[in-house]
Write a structure and sequence with these properties.
Oligomer: single chain
Strand order of the largest sheet: 1-5-2
Structural class: alpha+beta
Largest sheet: 3 strands, antiparallel
Shape: elongated
Order of helices and strands: HEHEEEEHHHHHEEHHEEE
Strand content: 15-25%
């Protein structure tokens, strides 16, 4: 029986394309990694990851070493689209600070359908947070809420969230759900189109997709349906139409 090559072994054991490690340059030279055929690719700038983003001051830079586990690791990681085997979760879109700052402004003119006691958070901020979560790959009210709750104080301030006792607060899942169900779909569609016209990617083709919203029932007891136009290349939703089917 012949011995499988490295590519075959990678397929059998589901190996990642490569490993990455960091070495404190002020304490260790990385001799062991070099002797084990790890590849030194450079050093970090010394910034430390924090809940709010990155530290303002630099610390000890780290040496970065890589160890390819597959002979075609560079080819695999250089593809325009990463192989599904190595993807985790859904598609993600990283919003820039400017995009977060501007997103809320596009929802300022939308009529607020909520009652007075339900306006703890501004409608524009709630819609901006929900939109950003969807752009970052979240699907469903639970995922949107978890994404919103995970935001740090700096990101919350960019969405102009409610500030209380020196801390920015974000809306709950119920608040987000009620706002999305009650808002005028045509006004929301116009706001999304306006934002997308400024920041959206150009797609070569569009896909039309329809789905039924779980637990979204109107006053007549009809379940709400959504029809969407999705860009094939960017995965962004260009327009949506919310309606309830006639009985």
């Amino acid at each position: 029986m012949s011995t499988p090559d490295s590519a075959r072994l990678a397929e059998l054991f589901r190996l990642p394309p490569l490993l990455e490690t960091f070495v404190d340059s002020e304490r260790y030279p990385g001799t062991v990694y070099r002797a084990s055929n790890w590849v030194f690719v450079g050093s970090t700038k010394g910034y430390r990851r924090t809940r709010e983003g990155y530290s303002k001051r630099t610390q000890s830079p780290k040496r970065v070493f890589l160890q390819p586990l597959q002979r075609n690791a560079r080819k695999l990681l250089s593809r325009p689209l990463l192989n599904e085997r190595y993807q985790t979760g859904g598609a993600r879109m990283k919003l820039t600070a400017q995009q977060m700052l501007s997103l809320r402004d596009f929802f300022n003119d939308i009529d607020d359908p909520r009652r007075a006691q339900g306006k703890k958070h501004s409608l524009a901020s709630v819609l901006a947070l929900a939109t950003a979560a969807v752009l970052c790959g979240m699907r469903g009210y639970k995922d949107i809420s978890l994404w919103v709750q995970s935001l740090g104080q700096k990101a919350r301030s960019r969405f102009k969230c409610r500030k209380r006792n020196g801390q920015y607060e974000v809306p709950s899942r119920t608040v987000i759900r009620n706002a999305l169900i009650g808002v005028d779909p045509e006004q929301l569609d116009q706001a999304l189109n306006a934002w997308n016209a400024q920041y959206g990617h150009l797609d070569e083709s569009l896909a039309i997709d329809g789905k039924t919203m779980c637990n979204a029932i109107d006053e007549q007891g009809r379940q709400t349906h959504i029809m969407s136009a999705i860009g094939h290349q960017s995965g962004q939703c260009y327009t949506q139409k919310k309606s309830a089917p006639c009985r």
